[in-house]
């Protein structure tokens, strides 16, 4: 039985992608970290200025304005980079865009700093060391700008590095989720194939048959062994031929025939050309098991199980037809049998890998018919 | 004393296997077989077995459906190939359950419990072969089911039965279960010497009455062993006095 909670990590994986679903949280976290960086930078700068140029209001203003300018420009830079999809572009495309952004950004920072300083100086709020008017010559401005270019360059490297680290951690987490989910599904599939009800009933029948008909008892041991061996084998291949799949089904039905006796009549209608066509393993087996568990097994007196296969237009068409109702097929048994919905969910999941595959379950006049269409690769 | 036993399993080979295993127990007399819910109910009603070996999953329903269809339950040992769910539901209440393939010593142990149960209930109880018109005695057991939980309850354990809408609520062992039958229908099946109609809504098991107090008017208040109190109407008070020879 598949626990629905196990399927949830799939959804969580989408949450792990920061861009589309959790942007506000990401923006807030970034804003906080970035503000921390620039406050620290401002404080450090202020201390250095005080030590090397003496404590003046002008130098303090430079430190503060540089930090504010840096914060505003880097915040804008990140927004623009994200909105423009720079991070999804190639390494060089990202590099030259960032370089250009750093050059322009540094200029904007200097405009903010110089503008603010000139305003404050002319209104007498601050004084610079030396003549008190500060150095605003073009050559000095060029030096300040180059300094800021270097500063923003370092910021970009740190930003991209932190981002890559976080991305990597999330990818690793998502990979582990996926792995855990796949293991859970494999375990469910194994458990379903080793259906204990089937196994213990077969063994019980075997006990009775040993007294009644030793030849049939020996045959039952062979058929049951084949079925169990096949269930335990790991399916390395992703596809089998219909012929291979039907060999498994025949063994399984031979075991069930001992259990149901004349309540189970199997009619085969397999087109010879269909036997070499390919399909994912265990799907026909799953349909036949369902037909017996929810159809034959729940119909007093049993009935006819029809298994048909033919070649459609570029596809293999398999039909399994049994007495019963859709309700019985889809509802769990009230006395705790495995619900029928799980096997069909697994089948639908397998078929979802190719949009040309199809599956239909139709009830009509006390019978249920499952039709599975498996598109064939043209080259195969 | 031979134990009349019915085998219920939808698979012929499973029934054959049970017969083979039961051959080792000469006191077990297999009186019949049934392969589905409806035939099992019919066979129990007509053959009146003391013991039923009952499969849980059958084409027409479950072993519980068989018991639901009976006026009173015979002694039952369940059998199942693999049914954790049902096994859980019955661990506390069923006489026993067996898993298939049945191990001979497990079957012997289950049968020993059956014999012990019959000995303690005086060989009467579930082994009764009386017609359905005869009221059920103190040691007769009924099968009660509330969703997933099931109980076999001897009538001696039932303290009272109270009207609940169109149905009746049975109180036993400090818990209760709703039965989809009317109080009047239940009363007709019960022994009048044991169950007393205290008022319009309530049947009381007189063996569970702990104290009787006078109440307003000419009635009484009964206090039961489980602490519940039941009012006896004035009309029924005279009846109660006669019954208890007060």
* CATH homology superfamily of the largest domain in chain B: Response regulator
Described by the principal axes of the CA atoms, the overall outline of chain A is rod-shaped
Give the SSE order of chain A as H and E letters.
HHHHHHHHEHEEHEEHHEE
Rg value of chain A? 36 Å
- CATH architectural category of the largest domain in chain B: 3-Layer(aba) Sandwich
Mean pLDDT of chain B comes to 84
Order of helices and strands of chain B: EHEHEEEHEHEHEEEEEHEEEEEH
| Shape assignment of chain B | elongated
What is the tally of beta strands of chain A?
7
Q: Work out the radius of gyration of chain B.
A: 20 Å
| Biggest interface, CB < 8 A | A-B, 29 and 25 residues
If helices are DSSP runs of H or I spanning 4 or more residues, what is the number of helices of chain B?
A: 7
Q: Multimeric state of these chains?
A: heterodimer
* Derived structural class of chain B: alpha/beta
């Amino acid at each position: 039985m598949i626990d629905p909670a196990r399927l949830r990590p799939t959804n969580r994986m989408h949450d792990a992608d920061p861009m589309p679903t959790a942007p506000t949280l990401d923006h807030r976290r970034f804003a906080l970290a970035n503000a921390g960086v620039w406050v620290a930078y401002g404080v450090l700068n202020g201390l250095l200025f005080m030590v090397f140029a003496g404590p003046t209001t002008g130098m303090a203003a430079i430190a503060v304005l540089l930090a504010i300018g840096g914060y505003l420009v880097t915040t804008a830079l990140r927004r623009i980079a994200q909105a423009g999809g720079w991070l999804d572009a190639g390494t060089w495309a990202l590099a030259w865009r960032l370089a250009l952004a750093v050059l322009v950004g540094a200029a904007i920072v200097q405009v903010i700093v110089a503008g603010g300083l000139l305003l404050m100086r002319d209104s007498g709020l601050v004084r610079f060391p030396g003549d008190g008017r500060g150095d605003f010559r073009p050559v000095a401005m060029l030096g300040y700008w180059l300094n800021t270019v270097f500063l923003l360059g370092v910021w970009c490297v740190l930003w991209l590095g932190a981002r890559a680290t976080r991305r990597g951690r999330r990818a690793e987490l998502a990979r582990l989720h996926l792995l855990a989910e796949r293991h859970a599904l494999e375990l469910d599939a194994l458990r379903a194939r080793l259906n204990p009800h089937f196994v213990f009933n077969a063994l019980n029948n075997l006990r009775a048959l040993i007294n009644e008909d030793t030849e049939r008892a020996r045959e039952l041991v062979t058929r049951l062994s084949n079925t169990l061996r096949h269930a335990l084998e790991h399916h390395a291949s992703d596809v089998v031929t219909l012929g291979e799949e039907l060999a498994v089904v025949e063994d399984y039905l031979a075991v069930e025939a001992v259990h149901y006796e004349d309540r189970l009549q199997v009619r085969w209608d397999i087109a010879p050309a269909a036997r070499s066509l390919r399909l994912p393993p265990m799907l026909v087996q799953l349909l036949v098991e369902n037909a017996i568990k929810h159809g034959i097994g729940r119909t007093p007196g049993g009935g006819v199980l029809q298994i048909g296969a033919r070649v459609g237009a570029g596809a293999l068409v398999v039909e399994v037809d049994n007495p019963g109702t859709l309700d019985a097929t889809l509802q769990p048994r009230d006395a705790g049998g495995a619900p029928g919905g799980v096997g069909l969910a697994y089948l639908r999941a397998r078929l979802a890998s190719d949009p040309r595959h199809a599956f239909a379950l139709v009830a009509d006049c006390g019978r249920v018919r499952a039709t599975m269409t498996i598109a064939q690769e043209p080259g195969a | 004393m031979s134990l009349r036993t019915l085998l219920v399993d939808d698979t012929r080979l499973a029934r054959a296997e049970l017969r083979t295993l039961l051959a080792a127990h000469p006191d077990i007399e297999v009186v019949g077989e049934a392969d589905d819910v409806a035939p099992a109910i019919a066979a129990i009603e007509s053959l009146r077995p003391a013991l039923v070996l009952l499969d849980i999953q059958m084409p027409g329903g479950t072993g519980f459906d068989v018991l639901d269809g009976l006026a009173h339950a015979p002694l039952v040992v369940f059998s199942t190939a693999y049914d954790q769910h049902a096994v859980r539901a019955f661990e506390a209440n069923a006489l026993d359950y067996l898993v298939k393939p049945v191990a001979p010593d497990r079957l012997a142990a289950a049968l020993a419990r059956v014999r012990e149960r019959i000995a303690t209930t005086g060989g009467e109880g579930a082994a009764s072969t009386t017609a359905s018109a005869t009221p059920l005695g103190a040691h007769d057991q009924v099968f009660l089911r509330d969703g997933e939980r099931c109980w076999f309850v001897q009538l001696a354990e039932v303290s009272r039965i109270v009207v609940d809408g169109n149905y009746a609520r049975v109180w036993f062992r400090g818990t209760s279960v709703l039965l989809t039958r009317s109080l009047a229908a239940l009363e007709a099946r019960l022994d009048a010497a044991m169950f007393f109609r205290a008022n319009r809504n309530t049947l009381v098991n007189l063996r569970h009455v702990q104290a009787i107090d006078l109440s307003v008017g000419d009635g009484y208040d009964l206090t039961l062993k489980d602490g519940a109190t039941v009012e006896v109407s004035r009309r029924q008070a005279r009846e109660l006095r006669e019954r208890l020879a007060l």
